[in-house]
Amino acid sequence: MRTSELKTEVQEFKRQRILEEARELFYAHGYEGTTLDAIADGLKVTKPFIYSYFRNKSEILRAICEIGIRSSLVALDEAMARKLPPREKLRIIVDNVTSIILKNQKYIVVYEREEKNLDAEDAKELMNLRREFGTRLATLLQAGAESGDFDVADPLLTAVSIGGLVTWVATWYRPLGRWSQTEITMHMIRNVERMVAPRVPN
Length: 202
Hints:
Elements: H1 3-29, H2 36-43, H3 47-51, H4 57-80, H5 86-103, H6 105-114, H7 120-147, H8 155-172, H9 181-196
């Protein structure tokens, strides 16, 4: 491994550790109830160390809030690029995005709770990313409706509904709760498939 590549990996690791610590504190105490001093204390570093990766606390919040949506967009695009019928692509998207939501649960919850504390431009950009997810998913639903795989009257509204259904998991999932991640993911897939299933003639 080249020295430059190793340095990049180390920097990314340190940046990720800052985000993880901030995520825990924002989740437990809220954005307004957390200081940069608290984040630094939790990591046993100085504030200048944090400033070498983030300009301020607001920039940390933005980085936390964008993790879920950017990962979901990547998962959606990867599924869309595969040469599969629309129904199979949709199943893969719901499977992968639900897994992303569960893996990044606290990041998602912090975003939902603290969106009001984002800088206006950051909030706008993140909302645009969420709209982009809905728009791209709607394209798949439209293609599925045209092929007969789906029965969807309003592809965009249905796409937004699917996004909301999957994201909602973050608010109630408990790692040691009644249902496993696999059970929850399969439940989401079945529910989404019911939402778009072609009607059976009487």
